[in-house]
Amino acid sequence: MVRLYTTELNIGYGERSIVKNLSVNIPDKKITAIIGSNGCGKSTLLKAITRIIPHQGGAVVLDGEDIAKENTKLLAKKMAILPQTPESAAGLTVGELVSYGRFPYQKGFGRLTTRDYEVIDWALEETGTKDFKFRAVDTLSGGQRQRVWIAMALAQETDIIFLDEPTTYLDMAHQLEVLELLQKLNVEQQRTIVMVLHDINQAARFADHLIALKDGEVVKTGSGEEVICPEVLKQVYSIDAAIGRDPRTDKPMCITYDLIKA
């Protein structure tokens, strides 16, 4: 089933075109990873799909409606986004930050209701951050902070969560912790997860569906088996990759690679 898709999407900054005539489907209740080299348009695509930036042509369609025409609060009840570098939460406690996820549901003076507090506590519980509720966000480790931001997205109660490089600046253990949390949300709560990832082995391990971009255009979409292969990686990254199998998951894995020189 596909609730969210783009048709001939064009995105640019001024005269510069970043994404060109891009049409992709985002499978519902699955994990989708967008991969590609630096500057290929991954983050730009994510921002356009979530209406953070406008697009110059084509459409982003969710539940049969063009999101460009959707009411902002209504759209915020359907999709949440965790940007690559979240805004500073200096001076906020964890509970206060997570409460911002309830903004689409607030009316009048924006006071939190009993229902809001219940959802906030649930989001903290699901992300393993309840013990931090009254701690300042800026006193937490990188992995803890990332889980708190995910809790804020969960508190938004959306079916779809977008994340732009959620493992950036995290060590190996915290990267795995965050990705396993997202996988848990997908499996146990049927959340649709869409994320930009730099690590292709993480993408192959955790994503059901991959979108490989180069210069703002789709090179290949499909499963890890279809995308993480020498031919596609040669086109996307200009590398000669040796692909094996992950001994624990049996997913495709880039073991080593060489640059392909012009």
Notes on the protein architecture:
- It is a single chain.
- The chain folds into two domains: 1-78 and 159-223, P-loop containing nucleotide triphosphate hydrolases (Rossmann fold, 3-Layer(aba) Sandwich); 88-157, no CATH class.
- 32% of the residues lie in helices and 29% in strands.
- It has nine helices and 13 strands.
- The strands form three sheets. Strands 7-8-9-4-10-11 form a six-stranded mixed β-sheet, with helices on both faces. Strands 1, 2, 3, 5 and 6 form a five-stranded antiparallel β-sheet that branches. A two-stranded antiparallel ribbon has the order 12-13.
- Helix 5 (142-155) packs parallel to helix 6 (172-189).
- Keywords: ATP-binding, Cell membrane, Ion transport, Iron, Iron transport, Membrane, Nucleotide-binding, Transport.
- Pfam families: ABC_tran.
- GO terms for molecular function: ATP binding; ATP hydrolysis activity.
Quantity of strands, as a count: 13
Q: How many structural domains?
A: 2
Second-tier CATH architecture of the largest domain: 3-Layer(aba) Sandwich
Main sheet makeup: 6 strands, mixed
The portion of residues assigned to helices is 25-40%
- Spatial order of the strands forming the largest sheet: 7-8-9-4-10-11
CA-to-CA gap between the ends? Answer: 42 Å
* Form type: globular
According to CATH, what is the class of the largest domain? Answer: Alpha Beta
Oligomer: single chain
Which class best fits the helix and strand makeup? alpha/beta
CATH homology superfamily of the largest domain = P-loop containing nucleotide triphosphate hydrolases
H/E topology pattern: EEEEHEEHEHHHEHEHEEHHEE
Task: Outline the low-pLDDT stretches.
Answer: none
In CATH, the topology of the largest domain is named Rossmann fold
CA radius of gyration is 19 Å
Q: What is the mean predicted local confidence, pLDDT? A: 94
Strand content: 25-35%
GO molecular function: ATP binding; ATP hydrolysis activity
Main location: membrane
Pfam family, one: ABC_tran
Domain ABC transporter: 2-240
